[in-house]
Amino acid sequence: MQEPLIQQACDWLDGQQQAMVDCLAALVNIDSNSYDKAGTDAVADQITQWLEQDGITVIRHQRPDSGDILEAQLGRTDQGHVLLMGHRDTVFPTGTVASRGYTQQDNVGFGPGVADMKSGLVMNCFVLRALSRLPNCPLPVRALFTADEEIGSPDGRAFIEATAQGARAVLNVEPGRVSGNVVTGRKGGAGFLINVTGKAAHSGVSHADGASAIEAIARKIIKLHALTNYEAGITTNVGTITGGVSRNTVAPFASAQLDIRFVTTVQREQLYKAIEAIIAESDIPGTQATIEQTSEFYPLEERMSSELFALYQSQAKNVGFDVDGEFTGGCSDAGWTASLGIPTLCGLGPVGAKMHTDEEYCLLTTLVPRTQALTATLLSLKD
Description:
One of its GO terms (molecular function) is metal ion binding. Keywords: Cobalt, Hydrolase, Metal-binding, Zinc. Its cofactor is Zn(2+). The structure is a single chain. By secondary structure, this protein is an alpha+beta fold. It has two domains: about 1-185 and about 300-380, Aminopeptidase; about 190-295, Alpha-Beta Plaits (2-Layer Sandwich). It has helices at about 5-15, 15-30, 35-55, 95-100, 115-130, 155-165, 215-225, 265-280, 305-320, 335-340, 365-380, and strands at about 55-60, 70-75, 80-85, 105, 110, 140-145, 170, 180-185, 190-195, 200, 235-245, 250, 255-260, 290-295, 325-330, 345, 350-355, 360-365. The strands form five sheets. It has a six-stranded mixed β-sheet with strand order 1-2-6-3-7-16, sandwiched between helices. Strands 4-5-18-17 form a four-stranded antiparallel β-sheet, with helices on one face. Helix 2 crosses helix 5 (about 115-130), helix 5 (about 115-130) crosses helix 11 and helix 9 crosses helix 11. The chain is elongated and about 85 Å long. The chain starts with a helix and ends with a helix. The mean pLDDT is about 95.
């Protein structure tokens, strides 16, 4: 027998399947690439309308160069709150919706961002709406709807960390795994741009007078890739290289983009030091290398979520489904809050797969039960 408040919220959600699907279609049919401020703000407009119709307080933090940050509030305004998180941006270019908008086949929804993470946004809206219908919200609840997670949250990170201060738990509705599991651990990661300068020379007439930036960066790439340690969960990958001016010119410049992944913050610190040392080495006389960090996510270490996951697992069973925790190599905003020492769960959204591709889908039958499990978990965290 569920506690009365949990039962009341779950009973209301029982009748919201079609409403949730309709809301999902509305959000998917808005282009919202990370760099499309108008698009991500249009998603914010829609979410604000839904929440304010139910009397939920929405604070809109205007941002000049990126999508505005939405912060919804319910219950008391003191700390000890629960923070819900979700991002409005997708990886798909503006114009995608015109050629490939929301479609549905039986109980599967398709479209750009349908799983990652328009369905999670709908889920958070309905969690808030369910809570707003209770006689009173028994604990402080905050929800952040950010707009730049897909590019590393350069603007959203500060809002996430500030809003998370004093939180008792953070629940992030990235898509549930195709297995049906939630995410209890994630790798952290970072991106870097490496630039090398050398000295141009004719490769036939005066080869010895040159200093090849391409050779220098090639030697560094070998050293960088040697930092990969599969057993420890560390990977390094140079995914792009460019440089030089012509086949018969010793290359005066070259650049590469480096991606790294790690499991713990200790590994992060060790990797950063190793990378800095490799870049500082003089591989070819006459060349010089610099490195610039372009993005970063902190890891969600599994030890941070064990008790919170056990609570979610119990509430999911009460709703009617079994779930396990899962580790993934992908990064998310959950790492920012976990790094602050706050119990954090991720991958709590509806189940989906093939994210970032034209075949991305969401299992619509998971909308209501996973929203109920999340709502019940949140309510069970009250004092």
